Inverse folding.
């Protein structure tokens, strides 16, 4: 008995040691249009080195935009492996480029990209979503929101120029790729509410299920309009712009290895499995909000196991105004009504106190999780405090450590000369130089008030001893 208690005590203590903040090399950047948003890592050429894809929007995103015409594209930077000093092992310009069709109206914004192998040839393909019109009341001509699939052609080492297009009734913001129906084929789960607008109440999740043949020319079924996730039907205060997939509701094991979904407004969409038909059904369990908790168009979410040795997936979110990170835990036990647990006081981590003069104006923040320091637990990296990425160190018990008076918890995403110009949007965590330490890549919107109006991506190499 005493041994057991002692072992428990040691494990408990270990699970609360977050360690010290990671250290970083000075960031370097690549110019990529005016308004880069979603980023994704994947090894396009199968050389073992992760390459970086970023979405850039078309011209005239905002009134007064000084840029001239440019198409919406996915720019993919090749990892050259030359990670010396200075560490700049990304190709100087995009090595692969995917251009979205002209039919997409300029005010529709491609928001999210994933490099993922859709057709089972091992080579990552491009999935890119289109959402978000600028004007909330006036559907533009050529209105064409949805999902675009560009397959990679290994023999030519290029991406196809003729995408397969999957229309959605409403714009997609972010999406996730996971197997939702247990057939081992990747499906796409899309949060469809546009970004800043609604033509109609559309807080819903749409799933594009993979067809049975991985190499089919059109690999997905048309959208499966799934579930309206706003229990109050209160569109204005509860946009659905992002979602995560994972094991959020345990029923003695997830049927068929399928995944549950949680969206911005934090309901659990519990996957009931695939027994009765081609596609699973889902049961929605709404979440109660804390007083003062806001969901906005710039919300983002990340899912991971933030509790040491726990099989359930937890969630961290980044809000927009006065950015703060909130952490939600999945219920561990079966039975009862599954809701995420969240302490309105102790599971909230404001980061804006550090920002000082750099109050963000962009309204698209990002959050990612990875082991960033030498500790054993998942940490968080979040934008929203320009030009910094805030680092929250995991304690292994779903709690995180950050000191907004300590610059060690904030790493600048921009070279010093550019710090005032950048609005850091999205962040991903990936080991670019294969040294076992997870690096960061951000997309940075240019500032309308400050030349040179270049959007960039930044690479921040982890130098933690
Ligand atoms: Ca590569
Ligand atoms: Ca492929
Ligand atoms: Ca599937
Ligand atoms: Ca690294």
């Amino acid at each position: 008995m005493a041994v057991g208690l002692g072992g428990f005590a040691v494990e408990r203590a270990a699970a609360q040691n977050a360690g010290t903040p990671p250290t970083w090399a000075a960031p370097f950047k690549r110019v990529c249009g005016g308004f880069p948003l979603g980023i994704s890592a994947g090894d396009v050429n199968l050389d073992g080195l992760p390459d970086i894809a970023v979405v850039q929007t078309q011209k005239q995103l905002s009134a007064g935009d000084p840029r001239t015409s440019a198409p919406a594209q996915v720019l993919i930077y090749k990892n050259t492996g030359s990670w010396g000093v200075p560490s700049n092992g990304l190709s100087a310009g995009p090595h692969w480029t995917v251009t979205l069709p002209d039919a997409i109206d300029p005010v529709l914004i491609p928001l999210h990209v994933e490099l993922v192998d859709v057709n089972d040839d091992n080579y990552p393909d491009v999935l890119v979503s289109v959402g978000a019109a600028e004007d909330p009341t006036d559907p533009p001509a050529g209105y064409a929101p949805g999902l675009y699939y560009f397959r990679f052609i290994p023999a030519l080492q290029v991406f196809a120029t003729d995408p397969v297009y999957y229309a959605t009734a409403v714009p997609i913001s972010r999406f996730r790729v996971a197997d939702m129906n247990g057939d081992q084929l990747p499906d796409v789960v899309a949060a469809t509410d546009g970004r800043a607008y609604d033509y109609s109440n559309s807080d819903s999740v749409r799933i594009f299920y993979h067809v049975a043949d991985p190499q089919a020319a059109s690999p997905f079924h048309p959208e499966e309009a799934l579930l309206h996730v706003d229990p109050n039907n209160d569109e204005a205060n509860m946009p659905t712009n992002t979602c995560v997939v994972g094991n959020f509701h345990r029923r003695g094991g997830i049927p068929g290895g399928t995944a549950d979904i949680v969206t911005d407004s934090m309901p659990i969409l519990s996957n009931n499995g695939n027994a009765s038909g081609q596609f699973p059904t889902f049961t929605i369990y709404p979440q109660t909000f804390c007083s003062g908790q806001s969901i906005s168009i710039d919300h983002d979410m990340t899912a991971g196991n933030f509790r040491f040795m726990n099989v359930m997936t937890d969630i961290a979110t980044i809000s927009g105004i006065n950015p703060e990170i909130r952490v939600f835990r999945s219920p561990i036990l079966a039975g009862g009504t599954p809701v995420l647990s969240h302490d309105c006081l102790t599971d909230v981590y404001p980061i804006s106190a550090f920002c000082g003069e750099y109050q963000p104006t962009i309204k698209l923040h990002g959050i990612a999780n990875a082991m960033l320091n030498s500790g054993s637990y998942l940490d968080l990296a979040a934008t929203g405090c320009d030009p910094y990425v805030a680092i929250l160190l995991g304690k292994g018990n779903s709690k995180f450590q950050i000191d907004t008076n300590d610059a060690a918890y904030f790493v600048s995403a921009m070279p010093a000369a550019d710090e005032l110009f950048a609005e850091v949007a999205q962040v991903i965590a990936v080991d670019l130089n294969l040294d076992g330490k997870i690096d960061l890549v951000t997309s940075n919107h240019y500032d309308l008030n400050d030349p040179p109006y270049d959007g960039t991506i930044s690479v921040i190499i982890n130098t933690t001893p």
Summary: Residues 1-13, 134-139 have pLDDT under 50 and may be disordered. The longest strand covers residues 422-430.
